[in-house]
Queue: 4 jobs
Job 1
Amino acid sequence: MDTTQERMEAQDLPYDVFAKACPSRGTLEHVTGRWGGLTLGALYEGSLRFNELRRRVDGVSEKMLSQTLHALERDGLVHREAQPTNPPRVDYELTALGRGVAERLLSLIHFVEGQMDDVLDARRHYDETRGTL
Amino acid sequence: MDTTQERMEAQDLPYDVFAKACPSRGTLEHVTGRWGGLTLGALYEGSLRFNELRRRVDGVSEKMLSQTLHALERDGLVHREAQPTNPPRVDYELTALGRGVAERLLSLIHFVEGQMDDVLDARRHYDETRGTL
DNA sequence: CGGTATCCCGGCCGATACTG
DNA sequence: CAGTATCGGCCGGGATACCG
C-alpha cells in the first residue's frame, strides 16, 4: 500500500496538482486565491457588473478585482460582456466551465460555514491547552 | 430577484464568508491557501509523517509546511500524533471535520485537473486575441 | 527525525490619482 | 461607470542555521 502507483486511486490524469510544475496548480490558485473564490461564488448567483461585484465581495479593491477577473477570464471561467454605451456597461458571468468550478467551490464554502462552530471550538481548545505553555 | 434577501438561496447561516469580518473567511483561506489545500489533499490518502508530507507536497518548505499544519490543527482539521520515541515520530491525519473539507476540496481539485485542456485552450485563445494589441 | 529561529527579498495588495 | 498607472508597505515564503 505504500507503492506510489496506488497513491491516487483513480488518477491517471495527465495533470497532477501535487507536482510543482503542473499548470493545474496555477489555475487552482486563481480559483482558490484570496479573491478568486469569492468572485466565482458571487457570480454563481448571476451576472454582475463591476461595481456590483465590488460591493458584493466585501473588502476587495478595484485593482485586485480587476486583476482577479482578468485571470479568471483568461482561464475561461468568466465571460466578460462589454457594451460600448455611455456610460459604459460591463457584465461578468460564469462560463459553463466556471459554473462547474463554482459549484464545487460553493460546496466547500458552505460546508466550512456550516462547521464554523466546531472550528471555533477547536480553536479555543487549541489556544487554551497550548497557549499557556 | 435583486432584493438582497434572496441572494443566497438556502442561506440563513450565521457565518457568511462574503463578509469581510467573518471568521469563516480566515478558515477558508487556511483551507484553500497555497499549501493548505494540497496538505489536506495529501492527508486524505492516509496518515503521513512530516517529511513524507514534505515530499508529497512538491515544493513546500519546512517552514511553510509547519506553519500550515499548525493552522489546520488549530482549526480542528488535522490531528497531530506525536510519539516520544527516539528518533521522534509524528503522524498527521485528518479529523472527521478535515475529511469533510478534504472531500469537497478534492472534488474541486480533480475537476480542475480534468478540465485543464479546456483551460489551456481558453488561455491560448485569450492570449492570441488580446496579446497582439 | 521533526521541528524552530532568523534573515531577507519579491510581489501581493491597498491607496491614490488619473483616463475614456 | 469601468477601469489603468504608479507608489509603497507589509508579509508570504524561501534559505539557512540551529535545537531536542
Job 2
Amino acid sequence: MPLKKLPRVFYLQPTLQVARNLLGKFLVRRLKGRLLVGKIVEVEAYRGSIDPASHAYRGKTKRNEVMFREGGHLYVYFTYGMHFCANVVTREQGIGEAVLLRAVEPVKGIDLMARNRRKGASSKELTNGPAKFCQAFGIARKENGTDLLGDAIFIVERNKIPRSRIGSSERVGINSAKEKKWRFFVKGNDWVSR
DNA sequence: TAGTTGATCGTCT
DNA sequence: GACGATCAACTAA
C-alpha cells in the first residue's frame, strides 16, 4: 500500500474541491506506537466569511485562530460540553475556511479504536459521526493546530472517488445557511452518518 | 421507529 | 447568561 502524504498544495485548493477530493483518502493517526487508519467517507465544508454557519464567519477569535492558518492544519473544537470535532483547514493563511471530517471507515487499528470508544470492534458506532471518530482516533484539544504534514496525524493519497459516487446534501445540525449543500459523502457507504 | 431529553462547558454577547 | 457544526438513552406508540 503506497503511503504518500498529501502535499501542502492539496489543502490550498478551493474548499469545496478539497472537501470532495478528501473523500476516499486515508486518514492516518499515530497513537501509542500504533497506526490507526480510516477511509474518509463523509465531510462538510465551512467557508468562513461567506458562511453564517461557520465558526470563522465573524472573523478571527482565540477559539478559531487555527482556521485562519495555512491549509493543512487540524482545527479541533470542543462542543456541547462533551464532544470534539476535527476539521481540515484549507486555503492560504488568513482565510478562515475548513472541512469538517464527519465519518471514516475503519481500515487499520480497529481494536484500538474499539478500546477508545468502548465498543465492539464490529460496531458501526466506532467512527460514523464526527465526535465518535474523534474519540476513536484519540483526537482532543491537544491535537488542535496539528500540522497534517507532520507525523502524528496525516492524510495519504488514494484514488479519487468518481463524481458519480459522491452524494451531497444539506449540512447536519445547522440552522443558518441551510440552502448550501456542502455536505459530501460516499454513496452507499455503511459508515456515513444518519 | 420517531421524537424527546439529559449531559456538560468553552466561547461569545 | 445563553447557546451550540452532538450523541446516546429513553419514552411512546
Job 3
Amino acid sequence: MVGTKASTKAPPSLLYMIKQVELVVRSHLDELLKPAGITALQYTSLTVLERHDGLSAAQLARDSFVTAQSVADVVRALENRGLVRRERNPRNRRELLILLTESGRDLLARHAEPVRELEERMIRDLTAHQADQFRLALSKAWHALS
Amino acid sequence: MVGTKASTKAPPSLLYMIKQVELVVRSHLDELLKPAGITALQYTSLTVLERHDGLSAAQLARDSFVTAQSVADVVRALENRGLVRRERNPRNRRELLILLTESGRDLLARHAEPVRELEERMIRDLTAHQADQFRLALSKAWHALS
DNA sequence: TTCAATCAACAGGATTCCTGTTGGTTCGCA
DNA sequence: TGCGAACCAACAGGAATCCTGTTGATTGAA
C-alpha cells in the first residue's frame, strides 16, 4: 500500500484501504484457485450458492451490486465447467434457479481449508475481540451503504 | 449481502464481507464518477498519484497486486483522457514517470468532497474509536497478507 | 565487459462489467 | 377477464480490466 510509510500527508482513506485489502485477498485467492482453473470471483459465487443453493441470477445480481448481465457471464463460465446447473423454477417459470453440482460441491470442499487458512493469516495480528469488532465494522459499513 | 439475516448456517467469512463492502463502495463510486466519465478504478489510481506523483507503472503495479500490463491499461485510459501525462525519468531512462495534469488535479478536487461524504456515510454507525479500530484492523490485515 | 534484473511495450486472449433490446412470465388492478 | 406494469432471462455489442508471453532498451553488479 503506497503511502503506508511515514509521510507528512494525510493517511489513505478508508475506502482506499478496503480496496487494497480486497485486492491482496483476491491475489492470494487467485493463486490458490489457479490449479482449479477458476477465478476468485467465480469461487466467491460458488460459496454464495453453497449458502443459498437455488438462487436466481437476478437475486444474485441484486446481492452483488452488479447487473444481471454481469452475473450471467460468471454463471455461464461456471456452467461450462460443470460446477453449477440451471433449472426452471417450478413455482415461477420466469426464473432459472442456479444449483451446485456434485463437481461444484467437491471443488468447494477441496478449497475450504486453504481458504480458511488464508482468512486466519489475514487476522493473525488481531485478538479474537478485535476480529469480532472487525467483522462488526464491516457489517455496519455494508449496511450503511446498501 | 445474502445470508446476513437469521440463519442456521455459519456467518459469511471475513473474506466475503470485505469483498461485499468493496463492491458496494465501488458501485457508489461509479455512480458518483459517471458524469466525469471515469471508473472507480481509474479514480483510485488518480488518488494514488495525488499522494505519490511521478510513480512508474512498475511501482504502481507492485502496489496494486496486479501485473504491470494491467496497470498500463488503466494509465493509457487516463492518458487518453488527458488526466495524466508520462515523462522519462531523467535519472533512470528505463522508467516512464506518471504525472497528474492540471485536468487530473481538477477532477480530483471536484470529487474530493462527494467521496469524503461517501466515506462518512460508510462509518456513520461507528464511533470515532470504532472507526480508528476499523482502520487499524484493515492496516493489519493488509500487512499480514503482503 | 558481460550477465542478470528491471522496465516499457506489443500481441493476443479471457474475464468482468456495461447499455440497450427482445420476448416470455407474473401479478395487480380496472 | 384482460391489460399494463414489473420482472426475468437472453442476445448483441462494446468497454474496461486482467492475464501470459515476448521483445528490446537500460541499469547495475559481478
Job 4
Amino acid sequence: MSRSHPELPTTSYAILGLLAIKPWSTYELAKQMQRDLRFVWPRAESNLYAEPKKLVAHGFASASSEPRGKRRRTVYSITPAGRRALAAWLETEAAEPRWESESIVKLLFATHGSTEQLLEHLHHFRDHATARWKAVAAIFSPYLEGDEPFPDRTHVNALAASLVLDTARVEAAWADRAIGEVQKWHTTGAPQDRGSALAALEAALASGAP
Amino acid sequence: MSRSHPELPTTSYAILGLLAIKPWSTYELAKQMQRDLRFVWPRAESNLYAEPKKLVAHGFASASSEPRGKRRRTVYSITPAGRRALAAWLETEAAEPRWESESIVKLLFATHGSTEQLLEHLHHFRDHATARWKAVAAIFSPYLEGDEPFPDRTHVNALAASLVLDTARVEAAWADRAIGEVQKWHTTGAPQDRGSALAALEAALASGAP
DNA sequence: GGACACATGTAACGGGTTACATGATTTC
DNA sequence: GAAATCATGTAACCCGTTACATGTGTCC
C-alpha cells in the first residue's frame, strides 16, 4: 500500500466516490455528502460546491447541462480518468483517524468551574451522541426491510453505519455514567471518594488491551 | 450557558488550562499537550510553540526567564486575568464533537477496489484503535496504584481516560467483526450473503436508541 | 404578492499542517 | 568527536469555516 499522498484532498475523493455511483448535481452531491459522510468526514456544505469544478479541472469529472422542469442545471459525471484516480486513491494508505471534542477538554479543566457547569457539558455531549445514533438509525433502519437506495452498496454502508452506531452508543453510555459520578461530587476539586472516581478507569482497563 | 464564541481558539484555552496547573516552558507544554490531549484535541506539536506568546499578548500569561543548568529558558505562568478567561471559557457552550476517519470513507468506496485492499484498511483502523488504547493505558495504569502526577486532577483525568479507552475498544471490536465479514466476501461488490452483511447493522440497531 | 424554503454559490479570513532550520546536550 | 536526540522554533501554504448574497419555486 503506497504511502505517497494523493494529488487531491480527501474531500475531493469523497465526492468523486459519490460520482462513481451515479451522476449528480452539486446540490445533490452536497446533500448526499451530509447524509452519508457527515459522521465520518464532516465538512461544511458551502465548501462542497467548489469540489465538482475542481474535479472537472483535473479531468476526473465532466459537466453536462440537463433540463430540470423549465430550468437547466449542471449535472456532473465521473470520467474514466476519474475512476482510475479513485482506484489509485484507494491504494493509498489512510490518514489516522482524528477525534476532537471540546466538551472533553472542558471536562479536563472543569476543576476551574462549577459542577453544574460540568454537568451541562456532559449532557451536551450525551445529547449529541444520542442525536447521532438516531440520525444514523433513521437512515439505515429501512435497510432491514429491504428499502435501500443503492442495493449494491448496502454491504459497505451497513458496515460503516454499525461502527457509527456502536461508538455513539458507548459515548452515550459513558456520559450517563460520568453524569452519575459527577452528581456525587460536592465540588469540581479533588473528590471525597477516590475509589468511585477511579471506578470507570478501572473498569475500562480491566479486560486488557483489545 | 453562553453560546457566544470566545476570543481565542480552543487550542489556546487548552494550553491555558495546562498553565492553570503549574508554570511550564513551551517545550513542556507541547509535550504535556501531546500526552494529555492528543486523543481529544489533536494538534501538531510545532503549532503549540506560538500559543504561549499569544497568551502573553492577551495578558493571560506572563513569561519569566529561569535558569536551567547553565542555560536559561522561558517559563510561562498564568495570570489572574488568565484564570478569569479560563473560567469564562468554561461557561461557554462546547462545539460539537468531530470525528474523521479516512479509513472509513475508503470502506464506503471500497467497491472500486479489491477485498485485500479493504482488509488492509480495516487492519490499519484496528491497529490504530489498539495503539490508542495502549497509549492511554500506559499513562493511566499507574493511577490505580496511586502513582499520579497531579493527584487533585485524578478524578477528571480518569473520567476522560475511560471514555477514550471505551471508544478505542469498541472500534477495535468493530474492526475485528468487519474483518471477519469481509474475509467471507469474494469481491467488494454486492455480497452473496445479504443477511451476513446486514448482521452488524441489525445488532447495532437492535437495542434501540441509547 | 409576500414569505419561506430550496438551490447555488462567493469572499475573506484564519487556524492548522508540513517541511524546514538550527543550537544545545547527551551518548557511544 | 560524531551521531543522535532534545529543545525551539519559522515560513509558506491551503483546506476549511463563517458570513453573506441572490435567484427561483411554492404556499397561503
